[in-house]
Specification:
The structure is a single chain. This protein is of the alpha/beta class. The protein contains 19 helices and 15 strands. The strands form three sheets. Strands 1, 2, 4, 5, 6, 7 and 8 form a seven-stranded antiparallel β-sheet that branches. It has a five-stranded parallel β-sheet with strand order 9-13-14-3-15. A three-stranded antiparallel β-sheet has the order 10-11-12, covered by helices on one side. The protein is flat, with a radius of gyration of 60 Å. The mean pLDDT is about 80.
Length: about 800
């Protein structure tokens, strides 16, 4: 994929970076250049342009994944419409892709068109392998791009090195195998393996569905003898139940015939029984009337007693209210007497408050003055402490400098003692050289020591003056404490006087309320007497009503008792003729009816059991008849399942694909090592490990990239390398994969892309990284390599520079 011309309109990165609504980049003028660099300060839109030089509707550095459904371009457009118009070449063909995104209110829409141009430049809508035309639908457009360029995962992992892209060491083992499967054009094998796996799944499902049927047939064949015996036993039980039912029905008919001959005696007995029941009902009615009259009297008595209880409760509540009023008057009287006892103090409180306020103002002035003296004394103490610290530091520095000067003088004396002075050995004598340097330093060190001595004397003089000046001054803190104590006492006295002054209105009210309080006491006593009198009168009226109710004669009750006595006499005179045989025959009829019911239930149960046994035997015979062909079908499916399972495993990720990846591993490593050798020397080389050994000694499929360090004489996994090392080693491997894909004809891209991948590298590694890009272009015969870098020195190594301003 080699871009020729790009037009962007309505993109946020272009609008914010260049202040333009539309941007056009014509790359046909750089047809002779291989390495093309984008230069300019950050934020000018370089990454937006670079990432749109490929036809996928994805900005890879801003995408969380390369899935076309996992990225939204709407977050990166400015205005109601954005357009990406790209003309590009791929494998000898010219393509023209146009993407349009629109935002209207809350509605969002997208269109995507892909055209293929002939030799005369006439565009034709691209037609996919299944005959669908890319006429604006996004899904069709994405399907067409995957047919031409492969999936976005493969493209952005090999040809396009975006910022923040996933390194190979960041992929999980399964993800890396899937990526290599598509890189190395093993997709048909993987697809065939997936279809075989689907056949295995279908066969397994069919066998699971047949297993219960086969198990039922086997169980039916084993239970066939038992079912035959059950049918015979059920037939015998049905015959016995039929005979028992007929006997019970005949016996019941005989008992009913005997009972019919006694019907006249039964009629007489029934009439006597009915008469008795009517008399008993009348007696029960009279008893109810007597009970009802007694209950009514009890309810009246209970009502009068409840009324008395309510009246007593209300009387107590009224008396309680009067008691509260009395207590309130008494409490007010006590408070009034307490105020009158303080009358003199309350009346003179205002004058005393003025006197105390005057004294308090004087005390506050004394406290403020004493506080200022304490603050000044604290500042003087702090200044003396600072001078003390400076003097101690000056003494320490002077002692250190004196010791250093002494060492310099001892070393400088060697100038007169070393025998090589003035000889040919003098330039090479290290001892003499140090001694001469010490002599040169002695005067300078002595001058520095004199300066320290003068500064120390000045500090000592200032410290003595301040210390002597402060020694004769008295401590101001006791005076401050005494002044604050006087001020606190005056404040407390002022508060007490103010409280007393606040009682003046209450005192005035107390002087005029004594007469009303006495009147209230008289009123309370009068109301209490009235309440007691009214309650006594109501209680006497209730007692009279209750006594009158209990003494009133109850004629109705007497009449009910007389009627009850007459009914009991009639009952005693009534005679019921005995019919013993009727009771016996009726009991036998009931007993025989129950026997007939049991016989019929037994007959029905036997008939149902016989039918069920016959049906079960028929089902077992049918299931046994179907078992043989079902068993043959299961055996045939098992044979097919074993074949398809073997095929799915062979064509799976750990089968033929793993073998082909193993075969490609040395070639990939060799290509990567050639790139590393040409650009970075012999220090680093890589090898691809596709198998490892478990703890039990068995081999297992894996995928790891080992980096061999010739200087450190060690090998470690790529993800253990430093950040800068991982950048160019990862790029060497991914570029090697791209070269291998071009060699085997799976994916041949005409251009490579890189966005500031040299950022984590040092200066030397940056140059080597650019050499690697040119080497890869030569090895893979790539027409273009587009790069973004923030290193001005590297721009001299490229063939063309496009500056963004």
């Amino acid at each position: 994929m080699n871009p020729q011309k790009l037009i962007l309109r309505g993109f946020r990165g272009i609008k914010d970076g260049m202040g333009k609504d539309e941007f056009t980049l014509d790359l046909t003028q750089y047809h002779d250049a291989v390495l093309i660099a984008f230069a300019g300060v950050n934020g000018k839109g370089k990454t937006t342009v670079l990432e749109n030089l490929q036809p996928f509707p994805i900005l890879p550095s801003r995408a969380t994944g390369y899935s076309l459904a996992a990225f939204s371009m709407y977050d990166h457009i400015a205005g109601p419409e954005a357009v990406k118009d790209l003309l590009w070449l791929h494998e000898g063909k010219t393509y023209h892709s146009v993407n349009i995104w629109r935002v209207t209110g809350k509605k969002k829409s997208a269109e995507a068109y892909l055209f293929e141009r002939d030799a005369q430049g006439v565009p034709t809508p691209y037609r996919t392998r299944d005959g669908v035309i890319a006429d604006g639908k996004v899904d069709t457009f994405n399907q067409a791009l995957c047919e031409i360029l492969g999936t976005p995962d493969v493209y952005f992992a090999s040809a396009f090195a975006a910022q923040n892209r996933r390194k190979l060491c960041d992929y999980k083992e399964a993800e890396l195998k899937d990526l290599l499967t598509e890189f190395l054009n093993f997709g048909d094998i993987a697809e065939t393996g997936e279809r075989a796996a689907k056949v295995v799944s279908g066969l397994s499902t069919a066998l699971k569905a047949m297993a219960p049927l086969l198990r039922v047939s086997e169980e039916a064949r084993e239970g066939q003898p038992l079912a035959l015996r059950t049918v015979e036993e059920s037939r015998m039980a049905l015959a016995q139940a039929t005979e028992a039912r007929e006997r019970a029905q005949k016996t019941l008919a005989d008992v009913k015939q005997s009972l019919a001959t006694l019907q006249p005696d039964i009629a007489k007995r029934d009439l006597a029984i009915a008469t008795k029941q009517a008399l008993e009902a009348q007696r029960a009615q009279q008893e109810h009337t007597i009970t009802q009259r007694a209950q009514l009297l009890a309810e009246v008595v209970q009502s009068i007693q409840a009324e008395a209880t309510r009246d007593k409760t209300e009387q107590q509540a009224r008396l309680s209210g009067l008691e509260k009023r009395l207590q309130a008057v008494q409490k007010a009287t006590v408070e009034r007497q307490a105020l009158l006892a303080q009358r003199e103090a309350i009346e003179t409180a205002a004058v005393r408050a003025v006197e105390i306020e005057t004294a308090l103002a004087k005390a506050q002035q004394d406290s403020a003055l004493a506080r200022e003296r304490v603050v000044a004394r604290t500042e003087q103490d702090g200044a003396i402490k600072v001078l003390q610290e400076k003097l101690n530091n000056a003494r320490t520095k002077f002692q250190t400098a004196s010791a250093a000067l002494e060492r310099i003088r001892v070393q400088s004396k060697l100038c007169d003692e070393v025998p090589c002075i003035g000889s040919e050995l003098q330039p090479r004598c290290k001892l003499l050289t140090d001694a001469l340097a010490a002599r040169a330093q002695a005067n300078e060190q002595q001058a520095s020591l004199d300066v320290m001595r003068n500064e120390g004397k000045a500090l000592a003089s200032s410290f003595s003056e301040k210390t002597e000046a402060l020694a004769g001054a008295p401590d101001p803190k006791p005076a401050l404490l005494a002044a604050e104590k006087v001020e606190a006492e005056l404040r407390a006295a002022l508060l007490a006087v103010q409280k007393m002054e606040a009682l003046a209105p209450a005192l005035a009210q107390a002087l005029g309320s004594q007469q009303s309080a006495d009147a209230e006491l008289v009123t309370i006593e009068r109301e209490r007497a009235e309440l007691d009198k009214a309650y006594s009168e109501r209680q006497a009226e209730r007692d009279a009503r209750l006594l009158a109710r209990r003494e009133t004669p109850d004629e109705l009750r007497d009449q009910a008792l007389a009627a009850k006595a007459k009914i009991e006499a009639d009952l005693n005179a009534l005679v019921i003729p005995p019919v013993i045989e009727v009771a016996v025959l009726q009991a036998r009829v009931a007993e025989q009816q129950a026997a007939v019911k049991r016989a019929e239930d037994a007959y029905a149960a036997a008939q149902s059991a016989s039918a069920k046994a016959e049906a079960k035997l028929a089902a077992i015979d049918s299931s046994v008849a179907q078992a043989a062909p079902l068993r043959e079908k299961v055996e045939l499916l098992n044979v097919e399942l074993s074949k398809w399972t073997l095929l799915a495993k062979a064509l799976g990720r750990n089968g033929l694909i793993a073998m082909l990846i193993d075969e490609a591993g040395p070639t990939l490593a060799s290509l990567a090592n050639d790139i590393l050798l040409a650009c970075y020397g012999r220090r680093y080389s890589v090898s691809i490990v596709t198998q490892k050994t478990r703890a039990n000694g068995e081999p297992v499929e894996t995928f790891d990239i080992l980096v061999h360090d010739a200087e450190a004489e060690e090998a470690k996994s790529l993800f253990m390398m430093s950040g800068g090392q991982r950048v160019w080693i990862n790029d060497a491997i991914t570029r090697a994969i791209a070269l291998y894909c071009a060699m085997v004809g799976s994916h041949q891209y005409g251009a490579l892309f890189g966005d500031e991948a040299d950022g984590p590298l040092d200066a030397e590694a940056k140059e080597a990284y650019f050499r690697m890009q040119r080497k890869v272009a030569e090895m893979g015969k790539y027409e273009k390599v587009f790069l973004i870098t923030q290193t001005p020195e590297l721009l001299e190594q490229v063939d063309a520079v496009i500056t963004f301003e």
